[in-house]
Amino acid sequence: MKEDDPSRPRRDFLRQSLAAAGGIGLASTSGLSWLLGDTAHAADVPPATSVITRARRELIMFHGQSNAVGTGGQPALTLQEIYANVTFNGGVRPGVKPAAMASLAPLVEYNGGSGTGGEVGTNACADGLVEYTQALAGIPFAAQFSRYSAFTSAEGGRPIGYFASFLQDTNLSGYQGWKNSQVRLQSMIALMRAEATASASNFSWLATTWQQGEADSTGLTETRASYKSKLTALERAHWLKLCQVLIPEQAWRPLWLVAQVCSHNSYGATNIAFCNPFIALAQRDACLASPYMRMVNPQYMFDYFDESAQGHPTLHLNNESHRWQGRYFARAIYQLIQDRQAGLPMRNPALDMLSATVIGTRTIYVRFNVPSGFLMLDTSWVAATRNYGFDIRDAKNALVPASLTDNNLIIDVAVITADTVRITLKVGLPATAAKVSLGWGDPAEPPSIAGRIGGPRSNVRDTAGDFDLYTASDGTLRPMHNYALVGDVPLTIA
């Protein structure tokens, strides 16, 4: 992924009197300049028609499977509408019942509706956009032009093929999940259009968020390449076959934001998915190759719902984590709106490896895209894992050992500059070494664990949360750090 010129002027509206607002704790005015950022990274330059035009009512659609419908999120936490954001009268999980999609209602979370979830994060996302705009652009809610509508079109336990209308552009049909989502979108767009007509205003489809991949992590349905292809095709299909059909006056393509699935080890050591996060990697691959899709964060940084009593693997976020995920979506949407309004390539809002360079025989320098501040190795929130999550692997993804009795080639990991980590090896780099992996999981740990206390994870983060704080439902403040994506990069020789 290439870098933008860091000297490029980006934003001119950061006000002198930034103040904390609705869960954004601002430690300093200068500390949040990264949100308006001079260090964007882009995969491609979108066409001019991709410049976002703001609307009075803007849609954010949550999409995917169980985590996107709030499974594990009971009880719901966000029960009060604050900022005039709306959803369906039947709630954020309307299913396909016409009576549940007959009118607009205040956007709150609840425990009913289609599916088994509670808190989804739709409210946290919409409210977060209001609050980032208020804190960073200096525009109080009452003076902001845009209001938001949100709902989830997710359906639990479904592989990506269930949602795809593939793959040819001319194929207007699709699996049931595509048709269900189409019904929900048709209903919401009709309601938004009626509201806009009555108030002589406008509306748009701003963004889709994607939380999906657990069902495909079994290794039974998709490969890394096929999932990447289908996710790319699904985003494109939403633009060609839904947005352009339902909102023909919208000339720009909605954002598509991905929260990276990180529960692949939960399928057990006997499964192909154990320590092989091919779906997480496919999501990253798709976003790196797209002008329109972006990764937001890895979900290993969250607390997961304890499903041991049900005999299930650990797959689902708990209610606070669903709410917090919504806030991460809000921040990324805010950042990407700034890029798209300015006609700039969209930055990479996630902390992610860029390259791994071999120096000598025992040293590797890993360089990162760092959204904010500088790199840190931190075991205070995400539990320590071997080598902070780094490993050296061969072309077939197997660990490259130090010896016949030691499968760990790494002896030391250290941050040496703001964007670079130095890996020191126990012995000279074997000829079989092909890549550096991060966050794949430790084969010595029990497989059925996910989240910040165990399973696939890393201890690499930036310092975004030094200036940007999330207010949890109990009133405590949590740093909005960016944790590194699950990823891999090839080794190159200096």
In short:
The protein is an alpha/beta fold and 494 residues long. It contains 6 helices and 20 strands.
**Beta content:** 15-25%
Mean pLDDT: 88
Task: Please identify the structural class as seen in this structure.
Answer: alpha/beta
Alpha-carbon Rg, integer: 22 Å
Number of strands: 20
Helix share bin: 10-25%
> Largest beta sheet, briefly?
7 strands, mixed
How far the N terminus sits from the C terminus, by CA atoms, comes to 19 Å
Sum up the structure in keywords.
494 residues, alpha/beta, seven-stranded mixed beta sheet, five-stranded parallel beta sheet, 6 helices, 20% strand, globular, disordered N terminus
Fold topology:
Layout: E1 2-3, H1 33-36, E2 41-42, E3 57-64, E4 86-88, E5 104-106, H2 122-136, E6 147-152, H3 176-199, E7 203-211, H4 224-246, E8 255-260, H5 278-288, E9 293-298, H6 319-341, E10 352-359, E11 363-369, E12 376-377, E13 390-393, E14 410-417, E15 420-425, E16 435-438, E17 460-461, E18 469-471, E19 477-479, E20 487-493
Parallel strand pairs: 3-6, 3-7, 7-8, 8-9, 10-20
Antiparallel strand pairs: 1-2, 4-5, 10-11, 11-15, 12-17, 13-16, 14-15, 16-20, 18-19
Helix pairs in contact: 2-6, 4-5
